[in-house]
């Protein structure tokens, strides 16, 4: 392995050994000389160094302390250090390795020994550097592939959501706003002590991405029922109820087929299944209540209601949104989580701003 041209820093307070090392290494390597640890550190600030040969016992700053300082600095900690020692003192040798040295040489030494130790450890360093480079390249490639998978998955989610929007006039072109409403509510709820650990930025971002799939089960609802202007029969309403379980099963299958971010699909499944449950237990499909309803479903239920009641009204004055928020607030403890309703009240200005925006937040 080619190591010529590497830069070697030799640190020793004895001129004799500095000269020996210089003569042994010059010609093959660029050699820097220092007489103590402080000089060595100063040179390291000016030059890139590939390997350090350093005496253990020096005035001002000895080899052990210098090595300790080096290993505490990220730019220097991977530079191999070979110590010189005047004897085979086991305590010194043990200390040398504990401080991060890769090897040691006992004085007096021969030039050939220095050359071979330097060559071997430079080759090891080059091998390690190559492994690190390959690892970083692999990590970059994995990250790139994961991003491609995420983009593909988001595209699939958007296609599903667009299918629902085209079939439901009240939802058309409103999904981005509903996502924003859900994110606004979640961020505000995260200020509550009980939810601070759960509602992290990552969690809220997953919620944002999962929200468009809340009504994916409507794919299985016939247009004659989904778009029926009048009241539904009991049988027709049961079909509507079933869209929650159908959505859950659809996403469960997609999770197995697509793979990847299971957290996204797990949350989307909960939202699809439970977003029509009510805080008081009078919702569907199971009639569960309160905190039995998964948090993402509770958030999306309120965001969905805001979105539904303001459908077709974008660009109206803020008074309309105020009216909607007051109507929804009256359902606190009935349809909706009281803490979420309070979060809705506190974020009135953000919700109104989003409502009035012609271009949805992305």
From TrEMBL:
Domain HD-GYP: 149-360
A Pfam short name: Response_reg
GO biological process, one term: phosphorelay signal transduction system
Residues covered by the Response regulatory domain: 7-122
Entry annotated with the keyword Coiled coil: yes
Coiled coil: 121-152
Residues carrying 4-aspartylphosphate: 55
Keywords: Coiled coil, Phosphoprotein
Domain of life, per lineage: Bacteria
Function, in words: May play the central regulatory role in sporulation. It may be an element of the effector pathway responsible for the activation of sporulation genes in response to nutritional stress. Spo0A may act in concert with spo0H (a sigma factor) to control the expression of some genes that are critical to the sporulation process.
Name of this chain's protein: Stage 0 sporulation protein A homolog
């Amino acid at each position: 392995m080619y190591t010529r041209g590497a830069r070697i820093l030799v640190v020793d307070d004895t001129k004799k050994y500095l000269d020996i090392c210089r003569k042994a290494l010059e010609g093959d390597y660029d050699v820097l000389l220092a007489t103590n640890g402080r000089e060595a550190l100063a040179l390291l600030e000016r030059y890139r160094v590939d390997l350090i040969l350093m005496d253990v016992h020096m005035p001002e700053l000895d080899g052990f302390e210098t090595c300790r300082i080096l290993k505490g600095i990220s730019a220097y900690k991977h530079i191999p250090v070979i110590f010189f020692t005047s004897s085979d003192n086991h305590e010194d040798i043990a200390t040398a390795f504990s401080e991060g040295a890769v090897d040691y040489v006992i004085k007096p030494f021969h030039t050939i020994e220095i050359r071979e130790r330097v060559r071997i450890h430079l080759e090891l360093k080059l091998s390690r550097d190559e492994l690190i480079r390959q690892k970083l390249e692999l990590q970059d490639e994995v990250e790139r592939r994961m991003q491609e998978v995420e983009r593909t998955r988001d595209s699939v989610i958007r296609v599903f959501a667009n299918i629902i929007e085209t079939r439901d006039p009240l939802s058309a072109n409103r999904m981005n706003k509903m996502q924003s409403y859900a994110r606004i509510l979640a961020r505000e709820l995260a200020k509550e002590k009980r939810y601070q650990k759960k509602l992290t930025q990552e969690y809220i971002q997953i919620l944002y991405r999962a929200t468009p799939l809340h009504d994916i089960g409507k794919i299985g609802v016939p247009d004659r029922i989904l778009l029926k202007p009048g009241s539904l029969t009991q049988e027709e309403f049961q079909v509507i109820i079933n869209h929650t379980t159908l959505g859950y099963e659809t996403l469960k299958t997609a999770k197995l087929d697509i793979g990847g971010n299971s957290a996204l699909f797990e949350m989307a499944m909960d939202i699809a299944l439970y977003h029509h449950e009510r805080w008081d237990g009078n919702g569907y499909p199971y009639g569960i209540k309160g905190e039995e309803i998964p948090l993402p479903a509770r958030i999306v239920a309120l965001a969905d209601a805001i979105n539904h009641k303001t459908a077709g009204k974008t660009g109206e004055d803020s008074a309309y949104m105020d009216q909607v928020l007051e109507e929804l607030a009256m359902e606190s403890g009935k349809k909706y989580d009281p803490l979420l309703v309070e979060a809705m009240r506190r974020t009135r200005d953000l919700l109104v701003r989003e409502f009035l925006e012609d271009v949805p937040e992305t």
